[in-house]
Amino acid sequence: MGLRKETIEGVLWSIPYLAVFTVFLIWPALKGLYMSLHTYPNKFDLTETEWVGLQNYVELFQDPVFYNAMEGTLLFVAISVPALVILGLIMALGVNRDVAGKRTLRAIYFSPYVLTVAVVTLVWGQVYSQSYGLINYYLGFFIDNPPGWLTSPDLVMAALAFMTVWWLVGFNFVIFLAARQSIPERLYEAARLDGATGWRAFKDITLPQMRNSVVFVVMVQFILQFQVFAQPYVMTQGGPKDTSDTLVYYLYRSAFSQQQFGYGAAMGYVLVAILIIIAIVNFKVIGDSND
Q1: Which CA distances in Å does 271 have to 40, 60, 144?
Q2: Rounded Cα gap, residues 75 and 83, in angstroms
Q3: Considering only CA atoms, which of 164, 155, 163, 162 is closest in space to residue 241?
Q4: Mean pLDDT of all residues in the chain?
Q5: 5, 209, 247, 271: which is deepest, by most CB within 10 A?
Q6: Distance between CA atoms of 80 and 214, rounded to whole angstroms?
């Protein structure tokens, strides 16, 4: 009777969460799948639909704009994710040492993360300005024609990634710092007795002990950066020459600017499939702690 009562209580306590989970995740997911298999001939009446099966997916994989947006997204992820992980780890290990001003450094490192993306993009839009931006002001002392960071096809994605690293690295820093401080110091004391210091202690103690945190941060950053939207939307509108176009920004244009709701929904499902594959690969490569 006691076990049955606990089971009933557990079910009752989980009902509010399951209700929210169903309303805000399961139902939108099913609705999105339905939309991806239909078109909406009347843009002013979304109840009027036409069954097209997989036609939206077929058109998507034949769309050169989709592949250009995919290329832009992959470039952004390739630049931003390693920098976010490595820099966050270096900052955490540095602050964990017995250095002066540790609390101040923690506040400085984490403070950009509390800003909204609108504030960050507006501030960095001014910093990157070719004519009066802070970066080009100082570059002007050394070179005659400083580059246009948001107008150069070769620099724009790197510029967006750098801004994103500045904005989000504080989150990774906090995760890594908490993980580093949870490692028992007796492991390092034993390592020092065996003559293992510096790189060897980092490789044999720090990294293995922080492995779960590293896996978590890598997966979260892959998922977040693959969904980059606000940076190109606010700062470049996908330009110049569509070199800063991304998947989510193209999804937004298709669904809400061009009102191709079924096409946009199909793109959303392809994006979800890509993220699931990336998460599985990440877990298989670096996440299996039972090797």
Answers
A1: 21, 12, 43
A2: 13
A3: 155
A4: 90
A5: 247
A6: 15
Over its C-alpha atoms, the chain yields an Rg (Å, rounded) of 24
Instruction: Provide CB contacts within 8 A for 89, sequence distance 6+.
Output: 172, 176, 210, 214
Q: What is the pLDDT of residues 21-59, one digit of tens each?
A: 999 999 999 999 999 999 888 777 777 888 998 999 999
3-class DSSP assignment, residue 259: coil
Distance between CA atoms of residues 46 and 49, nearest Å: 7
| Side chain identity at residue 234, one-letter code | V
Task: Identify the bridge partners of residue 51 per DSSP, sorted by sequence position.
Answer: 38
pLDDT tens-digit readout, 242-255 = 999 999 999 999 99
Beta bridge partners of 39: 50
Distance CA 182, CA 232 (A): 38
Residues 6+ apart with CB under 8 A from 55: 39
Q: Any idea which residue has 């193209």 for tokens?
A: 250
Do the Cβ atoms of 32 and 268 come closer than 8 Å? yes
Q: pTM value?
A: 0.89
How far is CA 255 from each of CA 28, 246, 267, 274, rounded to the nearest angstrom?
15, 14, 10, 19
Cα–Cα distance measured from residue 66 to residue 249, given in angstroms and rounded to the nearest whole number: 10
- Could you tell me the two tokens for 242? 């569509």
Encoded tokens for 120: 């960050």
Quote the CA–CA distance of 264 and 36 in Å, as a whole number. Answer: 7
- Determine the angle formed by the axes of helices 27-36 and 261-282, rounding to 10 degrees: 120
Q: Cβ distance 226 to 73 under 8 Å?
A: yes
Dist. CA 164–CA 124, nearest whole Å: 10
Distances (CA, A) of 44 to 18, 225, 258, 266: 33, 33, 13, 20
